[in-house]
Amino acid sequence: MSEPAVRQAQPSEVDRLAKLWYDGWQDGHAKVVPAQLKRLRTLESFAERLRDGLESVRVAGPVGAPLGFVMVKEDELYQLYLSAEARGSGLAAALLDDGEASLAKAGVQTAWLACAIGNDRAARFYEKRGWRRAGTMINRLDTQEGEFRLEVWRYEKSLQPRR
After folding, report:
1. Tens of pLDDT, residues 57-71
2. Packing angle between helix 14-29 and helix 43-53, nearest 10 degrees?
3. How far is CA 88 from each of CA 82, 84, 158, rounded to the nearest angstrom?
4. Number of neighbours of residue 95 by Cβ within 10 angstroms
5. Domains in the chain with CATH codes
């Protein structure tokens, strides 16, 4: 079986991707983050963040009907979301691999990602894919009301080829 194709996100997919991100965020984060952050994470806030970073968004799934996406920012695997119906399909692994490849191509030697403390399903997935929990950190999140500081698990992975 071939690995699912990952491609560049299209501007016409922002609304669909925002809904996918919003639903996934609610599922993985709403129970483990402060109520103030939950209030700030609106569907429109996700759409705005996607529009702002669209050039770094890669998706899996048919054009117009993406099933998941990965987004990188500098040396960070910034976002990884999959629709509930695509879980267990291998798309999350394909998206993660694509994000890691993008970071490596940009010269990143050690990539990092933030995982909400308590999002155990995501943490297990990252660990299974070779990421190691380096500790906790304060993540400075951009919101429409300014910076929001949230303690998160920091995961890291070396992207150096094995010799």
Report:
1. 999 999 999 999 999
2. 120
3. 10, 9, 25
4. 26
5. 6-158 (3.40.630.30)
- The residue ranges of the chain whose pLDDT is under 70 are 1-4, 162-163
- pLDDT of res. 131: 98
Q: Which of 131, 7, 3, 1 is nearest to 68 (CA)?
A: 7
71 closest CA partner among 41, 42, 103, 45? 103
Spell out the SS3 assignment of the chain. Answer: CCCCCEEECCHHHHHHHHHHHHHHHHHHHCCCCCHHHHHHCCHHHHHHHHHHHHHHEEEECCCCCCCEEEEEECCEEEEEEECHHHCCCCHHHHHHHHHHHHHHHCCCCEEEEEEECCCHHHHHHHHHCCCEEEEEEEEEEEECCEEEEEEEEEEEEECCCCC
User: Long-range CB contacts (< 8 A, 24+ apart) of 43-52?
Assistant: 43/18, 43/19, 44/18, 45/143, 45/144, 46/18, 46/21, 46/22, 47/14, 47/15, 47/18, 49/142, 50/9, 50/14, 50/17, 50/18, 50/21, 51/11, 51/14
